[in-house]
Amino acid sequence: MAMGYRLDRYGRQVPVGLSARQTDFSELPVIDLAPMFGSDPEAKRAMAQALRSACIEVGFFYLKNHGVPQPIIDQAFAASAEFFALPYAEKMEIEQTRTPGYPGYTPMQEESGDAKSRKRQEGFNMNLELPLDDPYVTSRRPFFEPNSWPRRPAGFRDTLLTYFGEMRNLGQKLLGGFALALDLPEGYFQPMITKPITMMRVNHYPPQEDQASDDEDIGNGAHTDFECFTILAQQKGITALQVVNGKGEWISVPPIPGTFVINIADQMERWTNDLFSSTMHRVLNKNAMDRTSIAFFFGSDDDIVMSPLPNCVPEGEAPKYPPIRAGDYVLGRVDNAYEGNLKKKLA
Ligand code: OGA
Ligand code: NI
Questions:
Q1: pLDDT in tens, 114-158
Q2: Of 225, 235, 330, 334, which is best to mutate to test ligand 1, by the most ligand atoms within 8 angstroms of its C-beta?
Q3: What is the crossing angle of helices 41-57 and 156-181, to 10°?
C-alpha cells in the first residue's frame, strides 16, 4: 500500500497516519558498549563496525552494557513521577517562560489553556548545571542558563544531577565509539566536549485513549533531535516511541530492560556530511497507563567550528555544508522548532 506523506515545518516528508507496525525489537540493532570499557582493540573494532552500520542504516539503536547503575536510573524515574504528581500551581512556580532559555517546567495545554502547549505531554527541562558565577552563565550564553529547580520532591535536584552526570560520562564514552565508527582515533572528539551543550528533558505522557484528531495531536509529533545524539531512558513495560524506517513505516520501539535507546541527531548528521542518519521519531502513548521518559541531548562545545568530517566527504566531492559554529547551528534549529520564541526570549 502506498504511504502518504505531508511536509512538516522544516519541509521534511512525514509519513501520515497513526498506525505503527509492531515489530520484533530486533528490528532496531542492539549495540553492546562493553568493549569501550576494555582494552581489546579487536573487540572495539567489531563494535565500531556494528555501530557504523546502525548509524548509517537506522540512526537508532538500543545500547546495552552501558555502565550506568540501574538504581540511578530508577531513582531518576521515581523522582520524576513525584514531581509530575505535584499540584499544577506548584509546578507552575518554575514554568519555563519565567526564566531565560530552556530550563523549567512545560505544562500540558489542558491545564494551562495555552494553545501553544501540548495536550499530551508535560515536561521538566534542564541544562548543564554550572556555578552561577561561571562566565558562561554570567554572560548569558544560550544553552547555559541556570536551571530552575522545584521546591519538592526532596532530593529531586540531587537525583537528577546524579543521573545527568552519568549521562554526560556515557555520552563521552559513546562519542569515542562514534569516532571509531568513523575511522577516527577514539579520542578525536574529546577536546570538543569540554563544556558541551547538553540538555535533558523528563517527559510525562498521559494515556491517550481517545482518538487523536491528527498526527500532531499526540505526545510528541514527528521530529528529529537537534544535537549530536540522544540517550533515551524509557519507562519499563510501556511502548510509545515510534521510529520511521526506510520504507516510511512507523516502527514501535518497546523498552528492553537494561538498555537505553540512542538516536543520531541533526548536528551529527551534518557533521558526518549526512553519512549518519538523524531519523524521525514520535511518541504516542496508547497504553492505559501514564508514561515517563528521560531524554538526554548530547552536543559539542558551543564554540567549535564544525565542518563536515573529511573522511565523510567522498573523493572529488565538495562537502554538503559550509563550516558553522556549533552553538549557532543548534540555536538555529531550536529556534526554528520553537517558532522564534527562544531567540526572542534570549534577546
Ligand atoms: C524527545 C523524544 C522520545 C520519548 O524528547 O525528543 O523524542 O520516548 N522523546 O519520550
Ligand atoms: Ni526526539
A1: 766 678 999 999 999 999 999 999 999 999 999 999 999 999 999
A2: 225
A3: 100
